[in-house]
Every structure is written in C-alpha cells, then in structure tokens.
Write a structure and sequence with these properties.
This protein has about 600 residues and is α+β, with helices and mostly antiparallel strands. It contains ten helices and 30 strands. It has four domains: about 55 residues, no CATH class; about 200 residues, Cathepsin D, subunit A, domain 1, CATH 2.40.70; about 220 residues, Acid Proteases (Cathepsin D, subunit A, domain 1, Beta Barrel), CATH 2.40.70.10; about 40 residues, no CATH class. The relative contact order is 0.14.
Length: about 600
C-alpha cells in the first residue's frame, strides 16, 4: 500500500495530486519489479551432529521442529536426496552412520512432513536410481537463516546399494545437475536471478581448516583472481556435470625447487580431458598409465601402498617415504592452479564406531586416485580438493562455467549473475528478499525428464519446466496490477471523502450565520431558505406595512410567512426606532 503521507498530500492537491501520486506509486512498483534478488549464501564447514560428531558440508535444516543435516552439492544428481531415519548399511553402528551420512532425517518427528501429489513425477537422475530405491516426500527445507522452501519435494533413500556411490558420495545430496530441482524452484520463485552457483570448498588440510561457501544466484567475486578459464557445458556420458576441461600439463613441484612434468614427451602437446566433479573426495582421478606411473618413476619408488576407506575414499595411502612436494595443473594460456603439499598430503581420517573422527598421522594420504585395473578407462576428474585453491562459478541459463585461481581472503564480495551470465550492478539489488518463504509444491507442472529428454532440453533450451505452475507465476503479475488499482482507488476515495467533508463544513458554517434573535418570542426560528429564497425560485412580493407601527426587519420577514399567520410582537425595550419604509428584500443571502 502507498505511504500515508502520499495519500494525505494527494488529497490536498486535487486531480493533479492524484496523478502525481499514481506516477510515484508506479515508479516505486517498477523499481521493485526491476530489482534483482541477492545471492543465497550457504557456508561449507564442520556441522555439529552430536556432542562428539561433526561432518563437513553445507548445513541445511529439514522439517518442523528442524533437523540439521550436513549435505554436499552433487553434480551427479538433479534431486535432493536424504538418508534416515535408520542406517541402510547394517554393518555400521547408528553413531558411525550418522556421522558418515551427515545426520539421519526422521520424517516422523517433523510436523510439516508430507506426501507428494499422486501425479508428481520426479526429475530423473542416472538410471541406477530406480523408483523402488527411494520414496518421495515433502517437507520445509531451510537453506539459510532467513530463507526456506515450503513443502519441497525430495527423495529418501530406501536402497542405495545399487546406486554405486559407496564411499565416494556417502552424504545427503543437494542435486545441482542441469535439471536441479532446487535451482529451478528458487529461480521460478524469483528468489535468485539465475540458475547459477559459486563454489569454494574451503581448506581441509594439515594445520588449515578454513570454511568455504556455496552460493546460489551468483558468486563471491572476492575469492577470484585473474581472468579465469571459461568453457561451455558439454553433454557427455563420461561427465555427469557437463563441465569438461582440458589439462595441458601436470607438473611436480619438487621440494628441491625443480619442476618436472608427468606428461609423456611423446604427447605432442595433446592435452588430457577431465570432468569437473566438485563433490568427489579427491584432488584428481589420474590415469595410472602413463601419468601416475611417471610420477612414481620420477621419485624412484612406488607411490601406492594401499587405498583409504575413510573420508578421502580410495585415495592413495603413501609409503613411508611419502611425498613432500606440490602439484601444478596447467590449462594453457597462462592459467595454472598450484596445490601446496599441506593440501595434497594429509593424515588418513576415518570415523570410529562412536561416530568420532580419528586422524592416523602414521598413514598419510596422497589425494590422488590412480585409475588402474577396472577403472583404467574411466574419465579423469577434478574433485573437491582442487577447489581448495580454485573457485568455480557456473550458469545453467547460458550453459557456461568459469574457474579462477583462488584469492584466499576472508572478505566477501557477493555479485549477482543474470540469465545472460552478466554481473548485475549492485545498484539494482533488492533491499530485502521480499518473500521469506516460497512454496514449491509438487504438481503436474513439475519437470519430468528421462536422460534423453534432459539432454535434449538442456542442449536446445537450457531450461526445464518450473516447479511453480503458470497460474502461480501469473498470479504474481495480476497481484501487482491489483495493487496499483487498489492504491489508485484508495487515493481517489480519500480525496473524494475530504472534498465532501469540506463541502459539508461550508454548508454548516453558512447555516450558522448569526441573526438578532435575542428578543424574538418563543416562536420557531424561520427556515433559512424561506428567509432568503434563491433567484431560481418564486419570491413572495414585499407588502406595505401599517404606517403607525415601526417595523423591524425581522417582522418584515415574518409577515411573508403563510403559516403560522403574522402575530403582533412586543416592541423592544430599546430606544424608539424611526419608522422605516418598506424595502425590497435582497435578491441573495448575505455572506
């Protein structure tokens, strides 16, 4: 509604005031409609799950009362998937399972948990996630302290054994693939300016535990350095995230100060293609032949002792000699990402049966997964630990992503990216997020894809159907028009009421015009209209009065009345007045 001062001002300025007020209101509404929402920022850090239980990830809350979970964004999935209330792996204790999964969600303890509509069909994930391996449900999903999605449709795992995740992706999943339901819901509700995101995992290294961030609708510009490395999405079965890069060289930064490439001299400058997998617990899935084997040859000993089954699942556990150097990835055109030794080599960490995190300092992990044997032909991948030294932003609207060298600063500079992949001026940011809760209820309008349909939609349009129906979106526009109409009606009505009140006040003042009635007998006071008839009505003709009686002006008026007939009045007790000749009454009332 318009400000009270605007209504008051317009009501005193007549029609011009109304026009000005409407113009100001329209400008205000236009400004509100054109402003862009600020990004949603979710920290990545240690989430406390119990007295001695923590799990690194993004903190979200489900249900009412809320249940806090530690989740990780997954570019392998479109849906949000949670685990609970019991552990599916019967070999684990409940406490160890709770830490491993990042908490266990119990729908029976949530007052807002519900079921999806019968016609709801979830967005497809990879073929291994079959309908019998999960159940669908809805609940309130809190992303930040001041924003949650109401009745958001999610999956609850019933049988994950066939999914093939194992230790690579044990945590709750926030699906971020090209058909991401959460990105689509936020974008449809205009809670974010585009289906874009920014990601910095933070530091989970020796003597360095720095929080990261996951941002929706933009990115943190302060964390970027240089021009970056930009590529388009590529739809390929080898890379679920569609983010493919080409590595031109991988260089060992040895402790003695020398740099040695693990690329074969016969490569002829041909790069190594790799998939960006920001959630995978590894720095790099590296082909053993020839790259990892060349690394061992340079050092003069085999780098692989065994594999970790802890937090850094299936990474190499180094022999006693270890590795004390760093590693640099060269993408060409001067763009390089260097990984220092304290991020590359860390103690092996594992959860015990009480769900407590133990670090084995006598067994050091090299955060490299050498692709050999059954995985020898797998597509190389850059995982989460690569984003301890790099920052990535992607935009599903333009199907592009950019990787920058990390600027390790605590300063935050959040910027909005629009659907053209352009940074939006901060002058256009909305002052507040106008709607604190959004409803993304499942309905027939929810996106329904197969893998083929997803690829086709992504390649041709780059969009998916909104979770919000067209009726809800149209209602927002209709509501804006209705607000303008209501505001105009309010201004017009107030002006009309004030005008009528002013007219009534003027009439009352005229009706209270004073007359010399102090000496008038207890006769009813003559009616004003009868005393001073208007020119538009017939007049009574003044008549001559008796000459032997002085007549007052009031008596002259009384004489003309037909009912009651004229009566003799007492002479006032004042000085005698000289006789006055009859006079014609004035044509109009005196002011």
């Amino acid at each position: 509604m318009p400000e009270p001062w605007l209504l008051s001002w317009a009501s005193t300025r007549g029609y011009w005031g109304i026009l000005v007020a409407v113009a100001l209101l329209a400008a205000s509404l236009a400004e509100g409609a054109s402003c862009v929402p600020k990004p949603l920022v979710m920290p990545i850090g240690n989430v406390t799950l119990g007295p001695t239980q923590v799990r690194r990830g993004v903190s979200i809350k489900l249900g009412s009362p809320s249940q806090e979970l530690s989740v990780l964004p997954s570019w392998h999935n479109n849906n949000t998937i949670v685990y609970g209330p019991t552990c599916l792996d019967k070999k684990l204790t409940t406490e160890k399972c709770r830490s491993d999964k990042g908490g266990l969600y119990d729908p029976s303890k949530s007052k807002t948990a519900g079921t999806v509509n019968s016609d709801y069909k979830p967005v497809s994930d990879h073929n291994a996630i079959t309908p019998d391996s999960y159940s669908l449900f809805t609940d309130n999903l809190t992303l930040t302290d001041d924003y949650f999605i109401q009745d958001f449709p999610m999956m609850r795992a019933l049988n994950e054994s066939q999914w093939g995740y194992g230790g690579y992706r044990p945590q709750h999943i926030l699906g971020m693939n090209t058909g991401s339901t959460i990105l689509q819901a936020l974008y449809s509700a205009k809670a974010i300016a585009s289906r874009s995101w920014g990601y910095y995992y933070g530091r989970e290294a020796r003597n360095d535990n720095t929080a990261g961030s996951f941002i929706l609708g933009g990115y943190d510009r302060a964390k970027t350095y240089g021009d970056g490395y930009t590529r388009n999405f590529e739809i390929t079965d080898n890379c679920p995230s569609s983010m493919v890069v080409t590595i031109q060289n991988i260089v060992l930064n040895l402790a003695n100060g020398t740099d040695v490439s693990v690329f074969p001299k016969t490569s002829g400058g041909q790069g190594l293609m790799a998939c960006v997998h920001p959630e995978k617990p590894v720095l790099f899935d590296m082909p053993a032949d020839p790259y990892f084997n060349t690394w061992s040859d340079i050092l003069g000993y085999n780098l692989e002792l065994r594999r970790s089954i802890g937090i850094d699942f299936w990474n190499e556990i180094l022999p006693q000699k270890g590795y004390d150097g760093g590693l640099t990835f060269d993408f060409g055109s001067g763009f390089r990402i260097s990984i220092p030794n304290n991020q590359l080599v860390v103690p092996d960490r594992i959860y015990n049966d009480k769900g407590e995190l133990w670090a084995n300092s006598s067994a050091n992990v090299l955060r490299i997964n050498a692709l050999t044997d059954v995985t020898a032909t797998a597509f190389p991948a850059l995982g989460r630990y690569f984003f301890q030294q790099a920052y990535i932003m992607a935009n599903h609207e333009t199907r592009q992503f950019t990787i920058w060298q990390l600027n390790p600063t605590s300063i935050q500079d959040l910027v909005v990216v629009n659907d053209k992949n352009k940074v939006v001026s901060q002058d256009t940011y909305c002052a507040n997020r106008t709607i604190a809760t959004e409803t993304a209820s499942p309905s027939a309008s929810s996106p329904t894809n197969t893998n083929e349909a997803k690829n086709e939609d992504s390649a041709e349009s780059g969009t998916t159907k909104p979770l919000l129906g067209t009726g809800a979106i149209a209602g927002i526009a209709v509501g804006g028009v209705a607000l303008v109409i209501i505001a105009i009606a309010a201004i017009w009505g107030l002006c009309y009421r004030r005008k009528r009140a002013a007219q009534r006040l003027l009439q009352e003042q005229q009706m209270r015009e004073p007359f010399p009635i102090s000496d008038v007998p207890k006769e009813p006071t003559p009616n004003y209209e009868e005393l001073w008839p208007s020119q538009g009505q017939p007049h009574y003709i003044p008549q001559e009065m008796a000459a032997n009686r002085p007549a007052s002006r009031f008596e002259e008026m009384i004489t003309r009345r037909k009912t009651p007939p004229p009566q003799e009045m007492a002479v006032p007790r004042e000085a005698p007045r000289p006789p006055a000749p009859p006079a014609e009454l004035p044509a109009t009332p005196r002011p």
